[in-house]
Write a structure and sequence with these properties.
The complex is a heterodimer of chains A (248) and B (266).
Chain A (H helix, E strand, L loop, with lengths): L9 H7 L4 E12 L5 E13 L4 E5 L6 H9 L6 E8 L2 E4 L5 H10 L1 E4 L11 H11 L4 H14 L16 H13 L5 E5 L7 H16 L3 E5 L3 H7 L2 E4 L8
Helix pairs in contact in A: 4-5, 4-6
Chain B lengths: L1 H8 L5 E10 L2 E11 L4 E5 L6 H8 L7 E8 L3 E4 L5 H11 E4 L3 H4 L6 H11 L5 H14 L16 H13 L5 E5 L7 H18 L2 E5 L3 H7 L2 E6 L2 E7 H6 L4 H8 L5
Parallel strand pairs in B: 3-8, 3-9, 6-7, 7-8
Antiparallel strand pairs in B: 1-2, 1-4, 4-5, 9-10
Chain lengths: 248, 266
């Protein structure tokens, strides 16, 4: 984070840094009690380490478990076994066993997650929604406003929309609000689940640029991108999830 | 953010419930409830009617005596104490000075015969504040915070709409800077349009004041937007307890799976 203006190359970052995400022996199986106790195995034995400045893209066909893996890394899904350690301040926190307040603190300050869908309290203006993660981290309101406005401008969201709640926005506009809410903070770790799925080509390029800017500043990323152009534009490495697929 | 800082500085729980049990005759209302709450945390309690949510809330707030178990509170005045080991007088004092209790029906939490302003100012008076000018100033400040029209300050609560009454009740319960607020279905009787603004207001107040809150609700959407952690109750027992998004997106218990999959989509 103290890289100043000097762009940190991916190899250099790798040789310098310890990993900021360490996934070990991760497995996930769903047990559905109300469907006659059906067992839905997803993946098992996943090991993955991600360094600052890396963008690891999860690959594999639909239904192979990419989103499930990403959610397990964020602590949104509870893995059946294994661990996910994330760099938080000066140490690693095991998301799968940390107490709730610590997981929330990791999410507040160290690990951002861009989901496919925007889920917010209704009737709040877009600009306020984008400022919120900054205010939560104690950023001064004037600075928060400035940064939120700059982020929305970067993402080409028309200024006329800033004072409106996003409920009536198009899919692509909502998705950009969603990206802005996360990217406005400089999280050292970013997880992205199809952030560009409903964007047109020009906006996709903008998001690629933002992601590469964050990566150059040392952010470690794990993402899912079905669009090949996006994948090629951001990935430093592909991670094929298929190999960990469990037979049903 | 202050909330994070506070959590770092103060590792002790603000409230700890241990082995709490309560029955009404043959009916088990709360069975062996255990959990801790930290400063700045919002805990949601969800479950169907009759699952014991409100009974648990009322036990924690010292309004009904549990049959067994402890409710240990980190009091500014008394230190870390089981509230049921304190005298009735001390318990009431904690409730008055350090807690808030927001009822589902504002009529249960407001005094309908005195003005809106007096309702908001009263907790200050009950806590020994005698300076009229200061009380008035703080009351005006709180009218603004909960977005009530100051011109209505002398009107009786019954002339207010349901949403306004609920905001009045929230101001009345926060004006004395409690460290813990209990809320029983705070948005239960309100129009959806009013609900959204109230939810946002409560979230901001909790964030800015760094207070802890326990919110009983049967509305899973409300729980998702407000609560950091969620406890799911069924027949007096906690069947699941964890981070809100974990419990709702990856429910482990059969009952929670049923509850989550039954929510209507719009």
């Amino acid at each position: 984070m103290s890289t100043q203006n000097q762009p940190v190359g991916f190899n250099e970052a790798m040789s310098n840094g310890d990993p900021v995400i360490v996934v070990e022996q991760l497995a996930k199986t769903f047990l559905l009690h109300n469907l006659n106790g059906s067992v839905v195995p997803v993946f098992t034995g996943v090991n993955l380490a991600v360094h600052p400045g890396e963008c690891v893209v999860l690959s594999g066909a639909s239904g192979v478990g990419k989103s499930t893996m990403l959610r397990a890394i964020y602590g949104n899904y509870i893995p059946s076994s294994g661990s996910v350690q994330v760099r938080h301040d000066d140490g690693l926190v095991d998301i799968t066993h940390a107490p709730p307040h610590l997981v929330l603190d990791v999410r507040r300050r160290s690990m951002g997650y861009v989901s496919q869908f925007l889920r917010v309290i209704p009737r709040i203006p877009t600009l306020d929604l984008v400022m919120e993660p900054l205010l939560e981290n104690g950023v001064d309101p004037a600075e928060a406003r400035e940064r939120a406005e700059a982020m929305l401008a970067d993402l080409n969201l028309p200024r006329t929309l800033w004072s409106l709640p996003p409920a009536t926005f198009s899919g692509g506009e909502q998705q950009r609000v969603n990206i802005a809410r996360v990217m406005v903070r400089d999280y050292p770790v970013l997880l992205l689940d199809e952030p560009t799925a409903s964007l047109d080509a020009a906006n996709r390029q903008t998001v690629i640029k933002l992601m590469n800017r964050a990566r150059a500043a040392g952010t470690a990323m794990i993402g899912i991108f079905h669009d090949e152009a996006v994948r090629d534009g951001v990935a430093t490495r592909l991670f094929d999830v298929t190999q960990f697929k469990m037979a049903a | 953010m202050e909330r994070a800082d506070v959590q770092h500085q103060d590792d002790a729980a603000l409230l700890a419930v241990r082995g709490l049990n309560k029955r009404f005759g043959n009916v088990v209302a709360c069975h062996d409830i255990n959990f801790e709450l930290r400063r700045g945390e919002i805990l949601g309690i969800v479950g169907e009617s009759g699952s014991g949510k409100t009974t648990l809330l009322r036990c924690m707030a010292g309004q009904i005596d549990p049959d067994a178990g402890q409710v240990v509170f980190n009091s500014r005045r008394h230190g870390v104490k089981d509230i049921f080991a304190l005298s009735e007088q001390d318990r009431r004092r904690i409730s008055r000075e350090e807690w808030g209790y927001v009822h589902q029906n504002p009529r249960d939490g407001l005094r309908m015969r005195v003005s809106g302003g007096a309702n908001v100012a009263e907790p200050l008076m009950m806590n020994g504040q005698r300076h009229y000018g200061q009380m008035r100033e703080l009351t005006l400040e709180w009218f603004e915070k909960v977005e009530l029209d100051i011109a209505r300050i002398d009107n009786k609560p019954r002339t207010f709409s349901g949403g306004m009454q609920q905001r009045l009740q929230i101001a009345r319960n926060l004006i004395h800077s409690p460290s813990l607020v209990f809320m029983d279905e705070p948005t239960g009787g309100l129009d959806v349009s009013v609900q959204a603004r109230l939810l946002d207001l409560m979230r901001l107040l909790v964030r800015d004041m760094g207070l802890a809150a326990i919110i009983v609700t049967h509305d899973i959407a409300v729980a998702r937007l407000l609560a950091d952690r969620l406890m799911v109750m069924k027949s007096g027992e906690v069947v699941e307890h964890g981070l809100t998004d974990q419990v709702l997106d990856d429910p482990q218990h059969g009952y929670t799976q049923l509850l989550v999959s039954s929510v209507l989509q719009i």
